[in-house]
Amino acid sequence: MDRKHSVRDLLSRIPDESGVMIIEATFIFPVVLFVLFFIIMTGNLYLQIARVDDIVTQAAIRGAKYIVNPKTEEMEETGSVPVEAYRLEPYRYIFGDFSEIEAQITREVRSEIEEGGMNFFAGMEPKVINGGEPVAEYVSHIVYSEFIVEVRYTIQFPIPFWGMEELMEIEASSRAVVSVNDSPEFIRNVDMVVDLVSRTRLGEAISEAFETVNRFIRQFAGS
After folding, report:
1. Which residues, listed in sequence order, are joined to residue 147 by a DSSP beta bridge?
2. In this predicted model, what pLDDT tens digit does every residue of 146-205 receive, in sequence order?
């Protein structure tokens, strides 16, 4: 009996904290839920950024292919190789007009970005803010050329944060540069530059210097 009374007395001295758990849950649960929501929202933000980077990279590769072979798009759509020949212009990488390809890639990039993809929150779709600036551009450096796709965009958070009246927007950009590889055209362009330089005094001096080096190598190899 004494032992039962002592345990009962001990238990009676422990304060009743059932109300404390309710109070703690009232403060902690909203914070935990907000942190989880913020983590998911931030993950979705990086998902959209990665999606835009992939669209831009693929568009730059596609644009470079269309310039090297204008029939690439037709072959991708039909699944067959066209039999008719198309007219190739010499030095077209230097003097050619590729505005149609640039406009096409620009339309495709804008459409793919703004149409949305995998997204956990409505309203977080990226919005292109390039305005009238071109998204896709072909750049020739005479000897070599590049196809550049660059886009600026914003992503808006779906809910306002504490103390903010408007929704917060994140501004980002993505850029991809792909070399336009065409070996025959590269050799032709280099030959053209060599021909032009060889007709100048600088070209003559360079030719004489190379000839001197070649004579020295031949003499060294013959000895």
Report:
1. 138, 178
2. 999 999 999 888 777 666 677 778 899 999 999 887 666 666 666 666 666 666 776 677
Half-sphere exposure (CA, 13 Å, Cβ side) for 191?
A: 8
Pairing of strands 127-128, 145-156: antiparallel
Q: Does 118 score more than 80 pLDDT? A: no
Q: Is 57 helix (H, G, I), strand (E, B) or coil?
A: helix
Name 135's Cβ contacts closer than 8 Å, sequence gap at least 6. Answer: 105, 106, 109, 110, 128, 149, 150, 151
Extract the tokens encoding 41: 């929202």
Q: What is the pLDDT of residues 41-91, one digit of tens each?
A: 888 889 889 999 999 999 999 999 888 876 666 666 666 655 565 555 666
Is residue 43 within 8 A of residue 124, CB to CB? The reply is no
